[in-house]
Structure to design on (150 residues):
């Protein structure tokens, strides 16, 4: 367990310092804004979907280390995946951070994202960790209203 916690700290710090896929891709087909008023996190997620596949994904925003790291790791995970896979991974991640039972195959699918299981005991942090994910879903559904965790 302490290994998972160390890995969590390490990944959060690393991705917060050097966010991956930060910025708007040259051509985007979907985008949405998200806001977590409780913590002040704001994120915009951009997607370039072609033939049902996420060819490119990026994000911009300002927020706490957890929200930034989660967005960064999400973009790494979803790039190249099909839209169906994105929805499935979203569901697995959501179950993981909200403490619902997560089948082993879902955990395997999540890979490094499994470190976010640590936030389930901190409801306020669950919102930080899931903000970018809800925003990604809203973008794929062409939702016009900004996402709010409240
Ligand atoms: Zn936050």
């Amino acid at each position: 367990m302490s290994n998972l916690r160390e890995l969590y700290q390490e990944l959060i710090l690393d991705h917060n310092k050097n966010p991956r896929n930060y910025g708007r891709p040259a051509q985007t087909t979907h985008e949405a804004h998200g806001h977590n008023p409780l913590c002040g996190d704001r994120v915009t997620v951009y997607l370039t979907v072609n033939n049902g596949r996420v060819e490119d994904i990026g994000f911009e925003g300002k927020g706490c280390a957890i929200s930034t790291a989660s967005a960064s790791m999400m973009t790494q995970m979803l790039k190249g995946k099909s839209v169906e896979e994105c929805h499935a991974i979203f569901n697995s991640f959501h179950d993981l951070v909200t403490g619902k039972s997560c089948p082993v195959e879902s955990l395997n699918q999540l890979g490094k994202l499994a470190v976010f299981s640590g936030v389930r005991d901190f409801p306020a942090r669950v919102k930080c960790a899931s903000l970018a994910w809800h925003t990604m879903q809203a973008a794929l559904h062409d939702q016009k209203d900004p996402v709010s965790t409240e």
Notes: The first strand starts at residue 30 and ends at 36. The chain has one domain: 2-145. The two ends are 31 Å apart (CA to CA).
